[in-house]
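Researcher: Structure prediction, please.
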Amino acid sequence: MGVAAIYNETFMDVRRIIADSYLAAGFTEEFTDKLASISTRMQFKSGEYMMRDDDDSRDLMILAEGRAEVRTQAEDVIGYLKSPMPFGEVAFLDGKRRSGSVVAVADCTVVQIPEQALRDLLRAEPAMAVRALMNLSQILCDRLRKANQQIAALNAIEEATL
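Model: Predicted structure follows.
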């Protein structure tokens, strides 16, 4: 297989991963292609860190295959990621350091979308920027609701033992 064919196969795989993710809901094919053109496919073995708490990277990532844990600074597991979930959105959106670690619990394939290239693309495509930010907001809202349910369940257990 030639270099051009390998590049095209990799591009199409990255494009498919992005298109299947929650991040891309409502994206045009053209925007999905542009997003794929700035993205990279990466592999992680079980036990490897995909991102670390307090790291200064702000790249957005999409879990394409495998499973991962979200951990606190104290290494407590606070959530799980499965395909096709974006992650790293908090640091991307607020511009601060990572708020948690993500560790592969099975071999994983991830699409990495570099922060600055994504910001440049969103500035150039305002309609898609609105859609992307709405999608990221929906993901964050879903995660916040789940966290609220978990906190309420823990409070109920605590109250029952008093």
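Model: The beta strands are 40-44, 49-51, 60-65, 67-71, 77-82, 86-87, 101-104, 108-113.
Researcher: Thanks, that helps.
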